[in-house]
């Protein structure tokens, strides 16, 4: 059993959150966030008070830095609570998809606060190296530091437990922050122990290490929390779920051009193209597409729009030509797949119209795509002189 399920995590959830299993409900989700924020404030205030007292008593700048790091975590928990509250506001005229991205902004604010604390103590620790003061080792303060490490381990697991349960980037960031605190507190406890055996200003050097770890942790959190705001690739599990659920409808033979817009946790809008038989009644197709949109949207808690692409499934010329084209495209490793393939025209003047999907890991420039299309056209012309290619270059916006 993992720590998040042990040592009061489940007990706290069952005690303070009604209908805790319904984590997709916005009200339940906000209650989870409020619980995590309150627990964080209480724990970090206690740790701040204990460590500040120990830092003053032992004259240790490293312990004092660690204390104020916990104090910043208190502010972080408060920001998390405010973020959850604001992000749950309903949609309005200016924000038709709601305010869910505020949660990402609150996580970003937490990250910058962590960096600020670290930078401040880089300066303080640097001064301590050149102006050393004797650190007083006592067994009780040392034991308190060790206990604080175990408390932070639990906090990391608790925030991770809640963050994964409600898919909260803010709480996942807080979990990583608490884990980095475990490292810094361990280093601080080591410096307190070493001060007993040496006159070297270990405290200042350890303080620099602690401060550097705090800055690095903040930088890492900034990077992770800013990605959703910049438009990161969607979650692979969600991508697979959307595709598999749509393909479960019998008339849909393929899907492509999936694009997912993230407007905050539990607020995703997706659009996708679904391939359907061209010889089927359009009204019947529309009925299936409408049903798929509604059922998949409800099942995955998203807003889904499906564009239907009719494909010819019984024309031998189209089927055979497509098979040859796929063989030609095997020579072009950057091409992942094709879609929207059709033949337009008659006699000796025909156009092959299709889209190619480029591997998203490749940084392809516009000139590269022009050259790629020319090479494909050249290969096709050698095999089918009567065909001209009209090629559209597509990107895979899901990266899988």
Short description:
The protein is an alpha/beta fold and 400 residues long.
In the predicted model, the low-confidence regions spanning at least 5 consecutive residues are 1-5
Give the second-level CATH assignment, the architecture of the largest domain: Up-down Bundle
> How many strands?
6
CA distance, first residue to last residue: 32 Å
Give the strand content.
15-25%
CATH fold naming of the largest domain? Alpha-lytic protease prodomain-like
Q: Total domains, how many?
A: 3
Read across the widest sheet, the strand sequence of neighbours is: 1-2-3
Oligomer: single chain
- Computed over alpha carbons, the radius of gyration is 29 Å
Average of the residue pLDDT scores: 82
**Which CATH class of the largest domain is shown?**
Mainly Alpha
Helix-residue proportion:
55-70%
Which class do the helix and strand fractions yield?
alpha/beta
What are the SSEs and their pairings?
Layout: H1 9-16, H2 26-58, H3 61-87, H4 102-130, H5 139-166, H6 169-194, H7 202-230, H8 236-247, E1 254-262, E2 268-277, H9 282-300, E3 302-311, H10 316-329, E4 335-346, E5 349-358, H11 366-383, E6 387-395
Parallel strand pairs: 2-3, 5-6
Antiparallel strand pairs: 1-2, 4-5
Helix pairs in contact: 2-3, 2-5, 3-4, 3-6, 3-7, 4-6, 4-7, 5-6, 6-7, 8-9
């Amino acid at each position: 059993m993992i720590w998040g399920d042990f040592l009061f995590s489940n007990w706290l959830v069952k005690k303070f959150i009604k209908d805790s299993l319904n984590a997709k409900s916005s009200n339940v989700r906000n209650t989870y966030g409020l619980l995590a924020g309150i627990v964080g404030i209480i724990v970090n205030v206690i740790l701040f008070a204990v460590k500040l007292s120990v830092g003053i008593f032992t004259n240790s700048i490293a312990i004092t830095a660690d204390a104020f790091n916990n104090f910043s975590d208190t502010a972080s928990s408060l920001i998390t609570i405010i973020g959850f509250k604001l992000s749950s506001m309903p949609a309005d005229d200016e924000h038709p998809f709601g305010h869910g991205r505020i949660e990402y902004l609150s996580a970003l604010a937490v990250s910058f606060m962590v960096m600020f604390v670290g930078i401040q103590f880089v300066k303080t620790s640097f001064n301590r190296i050149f102006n050393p003061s004797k650190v007083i080792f006592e067994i009780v303060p040392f034991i308190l530091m060790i206990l604080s490490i175990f408390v932070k381990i639990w906090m990391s697991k608790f925030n991770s437990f809640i963050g994964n349960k409600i898919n909260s980037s803010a709480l996942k960031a807080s979990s990583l922050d608490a884990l980095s605190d475990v490292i810094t507190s361990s280093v601080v406890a080591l410096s307190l122990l070493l001060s007993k055996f040496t006159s070297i200003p270990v405290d200042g050097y350890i303080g620099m290490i602690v401060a550097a770890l705090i800055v690095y942790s903040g930088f890492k959190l900034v990077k992770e929390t800013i990605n959703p705001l910049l438009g990161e690739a969607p979650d692979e599990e969600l991508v697979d779920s959307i595709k598999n659920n749509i393909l479960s409808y019998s008339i849909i033979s393929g899907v492509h051009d999936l694009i997912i817009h993230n407007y905050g946790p539990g607020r995703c809008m997706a659009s996708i193209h679904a391939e359907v038989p061209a010889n089927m009644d359009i009204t019947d197709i529309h009925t299936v597409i409408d049903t798929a949109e509604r059922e998949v949207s409800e099942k995955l808690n998203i807003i889904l729009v499906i564009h239907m692409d009719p494909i010819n499934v019984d024309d031998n010329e189209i089927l055979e030509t497509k098979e040859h084209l796929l063989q030609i495209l095997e020579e072009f490793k950057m091409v992942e797949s094709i879609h929207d393939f059709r033949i337009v025209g008659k006699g000796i003047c025909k156009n092959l119209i299709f889209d190619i999907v480029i591997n998203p890991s490749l940084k392809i420039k516009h000139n590269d795509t022009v050259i790629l299309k020319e090479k494909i056209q050249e290969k096709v012309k050698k095999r089918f002189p009567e065909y001209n290619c009209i090629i559209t270059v597509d990107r895979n916006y899901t990266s899988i």
